[in-house]
Amino acid sequence: MTPGAIHITTQPHYLAERSTPDEQNYVFAYTITIANRGSEPVTLVSRRWIITDANGKKVEVEGSGVVGEQPKIAPGAQFTYTSGVSLATEVGVMEGSYTMSQENGDEFQAPIAPFRLSLPNLIN
């Protein structure tokens, strides 16, 4: 299976009620949908994120699965989850990859394209 068989969409949004701008704490939620367009099931084994704020500070986050799960995604199916991140700036970027496992044990990386985290109406 090729990484292109896994289609990842991202939908970030700012959580004003959880943020404290006076303390340089901006909280964002992001919803990720992982669609399996391949012909065999895959399991999301782990994740790797690179989170960069507007000051250029980079944080790498790696871990097993997502939101406490290692979902198995059947051909033609999708898995959606929501998580969150805090930044010290009003704008940031997230990108990364998921390690996916096929039933035969082969693993591959499914890239997550960079997406912007920003306050509403801050950037047009």
Automatic annotation (TrEMBL):
Protein origin, superkingdom: Bacteria
UniProt-listed InterPro entries: ApaG_domain (IPR007474), ApaG_sf (IPR036767), Uncharacterised_ApaG (IPR023065)
Pfam families with a match to the protein in the record: DUF525
Annotated PROSITE patterns: APAG (PS51087)
Gene3D superfamilies registered for this protein in UniProt: ApaG domain
Annotated ranges, domain ApaG: 1-124
UniProt xrefs under PANTHER family: F-BOX ONLY PROTEIN 3 (PTHR14289), POLYMERASE DELTA-INTERACTING PROTEIN 2 (PTHR14289:SF16)
Protein name listed in UniProt: Protein ApaG
Organism this protein belongs to: Oceanisphaera ostreae
